[in-house]
């Protein structure tokens, strides 16, 4: 996780600047790994004692809503763009709905099954993305992309068959959450492209909207049960502190993920993200101590290897698309020769010297959703 982004600003001060940037990236990656693994472990601890996944989700959405505005203004993140009400209800509201449902089902999964297994199932995200992109966008993938799905399916299958703490509800919840994150990826990239909204502002918009949309639902489903829970009636500050910490860590890991991605290439980020998943699985096994077999671990590693292969195949497929030579000059006439508006009738060819900046934008949501 130490390759600077090719399209980013040049490191000031020559070698010293490059070293400084490399150290910054390494520091952010390590911090991201620690925050993400802590968030997952604390989430499991909370749900084991306080089995209210919707409440945990609402606290995380509250954290996004409360902390993002002041922090983004301080950080200089560009302001919101104008979005028509029609577009808002057509895309933003469904995205907020999907964010809430995916988050709740994700919390149900780590409540019902070990964190390590839940994260292994989340490795199926590329499979859902490929299928849904084909159905919704009619998007075809390259052969290497399709082949990369094989180890993902095999790895998750091995992990499922050998999982000692298997639970059907946990598996289904993890799959629903992963499919929800995949749908968010597809439509979030569409919104980023069509509106020009900053990706962090989109995170804030969706978190805030999801919070207020589902506040009445939370009142009806969870509030009275939560108020009667021993942790609340007895003033168990440990659970309350864990809930607060979980909200802060969830918000912080989103910020760190975007920060790392802004400094490295999408491919480097993909490797770092897959490595982070290994780190989360390892830490959860060490801290929470859920029993596993070597075959179970093998399944997890094969699935993550498949994710790495998928990200690599997708990255090079995108580079091939953006680096294809293109013609400039007049349009071809009816007879197939040169003709059209302007120019001297010659057609020149050149390769795009570097991938356009939207190569990074197209990877932003793809890389962060399924944390």
From TrEMBL:
<feature type="transmembrane region" description="Helical">
    <location>
        <begin position="87"/>
        <end position="111"/>
    </location>
</feature>
<feature type="transmembrane region" description="Helical">
    <location>
        <begin position="23"/>
        <end position="42"/>
    </location>
</feature>
<dbReference type="InterPro" id="IPR004853">
    <property type="entry name" value="Sugar_P_trans_dom"/>
</dbReference>
<keyword id="KW-0812">Transmembrane</keyword>
<keyword id="KW-0472">Membrane</keyword>
<feature type="transmembrane region" description="Helical">
    <location>
        <begin position="168"/>
        <end position="188"/>
    </location>
</feature>
<keyword id="KW-1133">Transmembrane helix</keyword>
<feature type="transmembrane region" description="Helical">
    <location>
        <begin position="279"/>
        <end position="308"/>
    </location>
</feature>
<feature type="transmembrane region" description="Helical">
    <location>
        <begin position="54"/>
        <end position="75"/>
    </location>
</feature>
<feature type="transmembrane region" description="Helical">
    <location>
        <begin position="144"/>
        <end position="162"/>
    </location>
</feature>
<dbReference type="Pfam" id="PF03151">
    <property type="entry name" value="TPT"/>
</dbReference>
<dbReference type="InterPro" id="IPR037185">
    <property type="entry name" value="EmrE-like"/>
</dbReference>
<protein>
    <recommendedName>
        <fullName>Sugar phosphate transporter domain-containing protein</fullName>
    </recommendedName>
</protein>
<feature type="domain" description="Sugar phosphate transporter">
    <location>
        <begin position="24"/>
        <end position="311"/>
    </location>
</feature>
<feature type="transmembrane region" description="Helical">
    <location>
        <begin position="117"/>
        <end position="137"/>
    </location>
</feature>
<dbReference type="GO" id="GO:0016020">
    <property type="term" value="C:membrane"/>
</dbReference>
<dbReference type="InterPro" id="IPR050186">
    <property type="entry name" value="TPT_transporter"/>
</dbReference>
<feature type="transmembrane region" description="Helical">
    <location>
        <begin position="200"/>
        <end position="221"/>
    </location>
</feature>
<feature type="transmembrane region" description="Helical">
    <location>
        <begin position="251"/>
        <end position="272"/>
    </location>
</feature>
